[in-house]
Recover the amino acids of this structure.
């Protein structure tokens, strides 16, 4: 999974730019003709894996993948898992603006 160019680009995005710059690429990725359920599942797995690491770069990746997961759930009109993911995001770091953007 990590060898796929899309995941590598997302890793780089989440580490190199502020979270406000993540929103457009996340919106674009979830707007494409993708299987949102698979995208949400993979992004959630990556979010959980990165969140387990206390290093700040890994926590940023966890946050980014958490946002991607929440957005995919929202696109599928699955509000309960989307809101659960937003609550989970709040536990990662103090990013009030992130959860408020949804």
């Amino acid at each position: 999974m990590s060898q796929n160019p899309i995941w590598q680009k997302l890793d780089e995005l989440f580490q190199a730019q502020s979270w406000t710059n993540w929103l457009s690429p996340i919106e674009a990725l979830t707007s494409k003709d993708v299987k949102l359920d698979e995208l949400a599942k993979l992004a959630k797995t990556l979010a959980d894996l990165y969140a387990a690491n206390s290093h700040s770069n890994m926590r940023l990746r966890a946050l980014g993948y958490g946002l991607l997961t929440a957005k995919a759930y929202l696109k599928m009109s699955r509000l309960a898992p989307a809101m659960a993911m937003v609550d989970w995001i709040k536990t990662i770091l103090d990013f009030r603006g992130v959860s408020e953007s949804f």
The CA atoms of residues 86 and 99 lie 6 Å apart. The radius of gyration is 12 Å. The first helix runs from residue 5 to 16. DSSP finds six helices and no strands in the chain.
